[in-house]
Amino acid sequence: MKTKKIMIILWALLFCLPVAAEERAPLANFELKDTPNNAGEQVEFLFVPAASPEEVPEFLLHIAIGDEPVKERRLVNAGKEIFLPLITGEAGVPVEVRVEAVMDDGSLKNLGTSSLVSRGEWLNMNSMKAFILGLLFIALIIFYVGRAKKGKDLFIRKIPGLEAIDDALGRATEMGRPVFYVPGTSSMADVATLASLNILRPVARQVAKYETPFSVPVKDPIVVSVAQDVVKEAYMAAGRPDLYDDGIAYLASMGQFDYSGAVSGSMMREKPATVFLLGMFYAESLILAETANSVGAIQIAGTDASSQLPFFIAACDYTLIGEELYAASAYMSREPLLLGTLKAQDILKGLLLLLFVTAIIFQLFGIDFVMDTFLKPEW
Amino acid sequence: MKRTLPLALAFIFGLIGIAVQIVPALKGFLNTMLDWMAIIGSFALALGVSSLTRHHMTKIRRKHKDMFFSYVTFVTMLFMMIIGLIGYFQPESLYQRLFGNMYNYVRVPLDASMFALLAFFITSAAYRAFRARTWLATVLLVAGVVVMMGRVAFGPFMIFNDITAWLMKVPTTAAMRGLTIGIGLGIVATSIKIVLGIERSYLGGGE
Amino acid sequence: MLFWYTVAVLLSLAIFSFLWKDNPLYKFAEHLFVGTMVGYTIVMVFSQIIMRKIVDPITLAVHNHQYLNLISLIIATLIGLLYLSRFSQKAQWVSRYPISITVGFWSGYAIVTSFKTNILTQVRGTVVDDMGAPLLNGELLGDFIKSPSWSSLDLAVSGPLLVFGVIVVLIYFFFSIKNENPMVRFANKPALLYLMLGFGASFGYTFMGRISLFIGRMNFIFNEWWPLLKQTIGG
Description:
The complex is a heterotrimer of chains A (379), B (207) and C (235).
Chain A: H1 2-22, E1 28-34, E2 42-49, E3 58-65, E4 71-76, E5 82-87, E6 94-102, E7 108-117, H2 128-149, H3 160-175, E8 179-182, H4 191-210, E9 214-218, H5 221-237, E10 249-251, H6 256-270, E11 274-278, H7 285-294, E12 298-303, H8 309-315, E13 318-321, H9 324-333, H10 336-364, H11 369-374
Parallel strand pairs in A: 8-9, 8-11, 9-10, 11-12, 12-13
Antiparallel strand pairs in A: 1-2, 2-5, 3-4, 3-6, 6-7
Helix pairs in contact in A: 2-10, 3-4, 4-5, 4-9, 6-7, 9-10
Chain B: H1 4-22, H2 27-61, H3 67-89, H4 94-116, H5 118-131, H6 135-151, H7 158-195
Helix pairs in contact in B: 2-3, 3-4, 6-7
Chain C: H1 2-16, H2 24-64, H3 67-81, H4 96-127, H5 138-146, H6 150-172, H7 182-234
């Protein structure tokens, strides 16, 4: 942006110098420009007054956008450049701005017109960084998946919440009490829900093997269908399709608190020995966790909702914190494909950490280069 | 057809999901896609309602001791649905007013009361955290108590207010930020796995 | 009015009775709640999506001869209808199509938003503050040494402590590094300290808000319903 302004000013100055010798300098320089990295819904008008406020106190703009009636706009000459965004709404709209100078005696002097047609870009250059980072990520995944497939052992540290799953399921079997699995209270639009459904599979398989009663109350209709598929396939994989029933995963209700009311009620009545609370949660998290505790269930919770983590930490026996939820599916399945992505994720995190530390060090010396090149959040 | 096409669809629509955000010229298309998602999702409601109905029908068929309450759910569901739908086509009618009253005096107080139960649950959770005797639980509890006091502090206790502000500004922000960045990476990794077809549990898993 | 207010109060009390134990009153309220909410959702989906996003736009598109729009709407509707294949044992797998479309789209969508909001914005916010000043600032430390006071100490150490916290928490969540690794060993304790301080503080912060929810319900019973009841019976 800055360079653009400087360019215009320089250009203006260059233009002014030789002309000034013969005639008078132009009273103002202006240009209509296409706004970069947008869909053409806006263009910008850059205006640099060259005359002094005494000479030209005001400028008058006649702005014509598409078929709309021409609008007039007065700009007070404060000797400063003015940046004016003009909304076109979409690409392909012709825009014309005619500028007149209002002289100190009130007379008008035409300074000319600038026009263009709004344009949408195919690539948002600002988002290319994220795109490149994404490609790097994919390359890392492919690399590590290849290594894992070749049989190279990829180490994964212990995650206590996941280590506890087997014992918790065994406990339910010994006590002859059911297992509850709540896959969060959000929809498929939340990746946390998908992460939870990934954990549901190994859990359901184990439950089927142990012949433990199982219940998966769900809040979202699409999640119900997916959960039913996951549980069904898990029961088949465990060799117990006879135990499967479409009612294992069911829609308990559709709103936040009616759902938590219904699930808490079921917990009170069926007294599960183990309760999983994995996925996206909102304020209802504590209702579910505390009710599970009051019936003496072991609770294994996990969410990426940082606002709900404190409650799970305080109320539950085991909590998967944030990204541990996402690592769980690789951790439990030990599939090379998934382990490879986990390793790639760690490497990317390492790179990000490195970038972050470099940016800090550069900042310390007042150099913005790393910041501005890699860490700009504007898109 | 059963497995390849769904994976291909996930891949194509994954790319669309990325493209509508990074290609400015497709910005208008984003709204179309969001509408698509709403339209497609709305049909799943039928599955949800049938699942709920099945759940309660099973209770009734098995003569479960709570079967009466399953009837309560059916009756209110049908009642809400009927008055709501008639009310939609006859605005300003008695049906619409009844629907409004059911919303305001049945749904809203039930919602608010369930939410208010949290006052008790948060107390019991705090009490249990108090009994745990690890250094981590102690840190959690001390920070919690300080902030609770900080929010109601007055007079000589105003020091708690300052400590609260600092706790929220420095350690809490640091912890949440570290978590958020890690979660972001987890989300991106999981999403890439899904778009590339590496993670396919949502199709039931298996091969 | 009194009738509906009384209904509201009785239902609230029925919900609160859950704290004592599971009982028929709670069961009634719970099942009533589910029925109401599901019925309400059906009406909302009908009016807000079926009518507003399918029927009305299709009528409009036909009327205005916007065939591209019409085709788009019809395709979306047909894909949605595929969900109903679940009601048939044989064609059940067809419902995977709308599921993969939904899952695929939201996953792709999440990649960009998480990169932007979860990662880049947060990392940037840890290098510089909202005003663009670096969080690690040697000058502030100098200020503290020159004129030591609580506030200058706060200014000097808060930034560095924040940066340190973010780094150790990030290291804590590395999955593929062994616990014996010196970097992980070093980061472990401080990371847990930061996390627990953060969780505790958030817990305490929310505590008062939750208590006031209950006070709000009591307010409704004693300050709205009770006066209304007295007035109606008395007058």
